[in-house]
Design a protein that fits this description.
alpha+beta; 8-stranded antiparallel β-barrel; single chain; about 20% helix; Lipocalin; about 40% strand
Amino acid sequence: MRCCTTYMRPLVLILILSYTESLSCMNCIPKRRPTIYCMKDFVNTKERLWTYKISRSGRIRCQNNLMRFITPEHIVYNRTFVYNGGRESIVLQGQFSARHKNWMDVSTTDLEPRFLCRETLIFMANNTSCGVVKLEPVRNGDASKRSASKTLMFQLSLTDDVEGTSVVLVALEYLLTAQTVKI
């Protein structure tokens, strides 16, 4: 009887180890992580970035952004658009996030800057000719305060040189056909 238990313990131990090793191998297949695009790379162009489509309807038409200058920390650009039949242009500043390379906090360039929104680049074409940007308005002009019932908007932006992006545009237009998302 003692002889049987002497051999059983190592056998049980081997079975347990082989079973747990086979289970741990199931988790060794890496899961695909989402691609994090670089906002700085997308906006770093001397060409106009046109807003092709936005998920929210409004009175603003023909909107484009034109870079004035860029540093590793921020960008200053002109936003030009048609509003109520008249052409308007404002100067904005985008502050790049050190921790989240796909974020940019947009504010005015006044003496007392006002935060307007956080822009997150959720898609960018390989040649940086187009991208989808998620706009998150801020509450009370403070980028750290998120509104509990904020409205998210998505916009499709294109550079002047959009050759070869028609397939991407069709896919992105499909993404943007959804109405404004309420959280």
